[in-house]
Design a protein that fits this description.
The structure holds two protein chains of two kinds. Chain A is mostly helical. Chain A contains five helices and no strands. Chain B is mainly α. Chain B is built from five helices and no strands. Chain B is elongated, with a radius of gyration of 25 Å. Classes of the chains: A mainly alpha, B mainly alpha. At the A-B interface, helix 4 of A face helix 2, helix 3, helix 4 and helix 5 of B.
């Protein structure tokens, strides 16, 4: 670039350089917003939102959640012998009973009758 | 340049505005007047029930999901890997485990759809102002809940199948010792 072009370029550069800091702040905010939007999108699409009991509507049931970290499970290593099979049987039977004792998501709780939104005045 | 900027700005405004325009659902079902009155009269009670159900279903999903996951990762997977390491076969156990994992994924998807149906549509509609839309959304949520229930029943069946196959394996193993 020759000297004349450089002189012509100088005022434009000066103006831009005067606002470098504001540009940095603006760009940072914009990048943060974009990342927040992406995070929220992932939060909703991954299914985490449905499991998040810290959401405001779930205040009453928050304390009733089980803590799965307490269950140690069947040891991951060791030979398969009669003791190991008995141990597995005991652990599995306990968990099977827990998982199947209620008919999850069954019943007619969303029926017209249950909600009183049917055709009959008695419903 | 100014014209181009104005055009670009107009396009951006239209695009952003369209994101905030509420989606108006055209109701398909014609409900009798008696039913519409029932919906309006029982609106508050129905919404209270639905809100309570939404919370209790979330808790059930967390607890039940946690149990299903424990069984998969801390029981089935570990037993299967130990059997494989000892070269004792266990092919049927592994096959049932694969089915179980698939069904568990289906359960998670079903719940996500059901919960979205409830929280994004059913619970947001004013059943006094829009009783038909409310009724349709409840019907849609009901179907999704039914599908979710089928998934849990299928998971229960697979859990019992795994148990039966485990007992066969144990019997063969102990018989061979």
């Amino acid at each position: 670039m020759n000297e004349e072009n450089r002189i012509a370029e100088a005022p434009r550069l000066r103006d831009w350089r005067q606002h470098k800091f504001m540009l940095l702040v603006g760009l940072t905010i914009f990048v943060s917003l974009v990342l927040v939007v992406i995070s929220l999108q992932l939060y909703n699409s991954s299914g985490a939102a449905q499991l998040d009991l810290s959401r405001p509507g779930y205040k009453d049931v928050r304390d009733k959640a089980n803590h799965s970290g307490e269950f140690a499970g069947f040891p991951a290593s060791g030979p398969i012998d009669k003791e190991a099979l008995d141990e597995f049987r005991k652990l599995y039977d306990e968990k099977l009973e827990e998982a199947t004792e209620i008919d999850s998501f069954g019943g007619d709780v969303l029926s017209d009758r249950a909600l009183g939104i049917g055709t009959s005045t008695g419903e | 340049m100014n014209h181009r900027r104005s055009t670009l700005l107009a396009i951006c405004i239209v695009f952003v505005t369209s994101l905030f325009v509420p989606q108006v659902t055209q109701a398909q079902v014609a409900l009798p007047e008696v039913q519409l009155n029932n919906i309006r009269q029982n609106c508050i009670a129905a919404q209270t029930t639905l809100n309570q159900l939404h919370s209790s279903d979330a808790l059930l999903r967390v607890n039940q999901g946690s149990m299903y996951l424990d069984i998969s990762t801390k029981l089935m997977a570990r037993l299967n890997s130990r059997i494989a390491l000892d070269r004792l076969g266990g092919v049927n156990l592994a096959a049932i485990t694969v089915d179980y994992e698939r069904r568990l994924d289906a359960f998670r998807s079903s719940y996500k759809e059901y919960e979205e149906s409830m929280s994004s549509r059913t619970l947001k509609v004013d059943c006094v102002e829009r009783p038909v839309e409310f009724y349709e959304n409840v019907a849609a949520s009901r179907e999704k809940r039914k599908r979710l229930h089928e998934d849990t029943r299928a998971l229960t069946a697979l859990l019992h199948a795994y148990k039966a196959e485990f007992e066969n394996f144990a019997k063969d193993f102990e018989g061979g010792e």
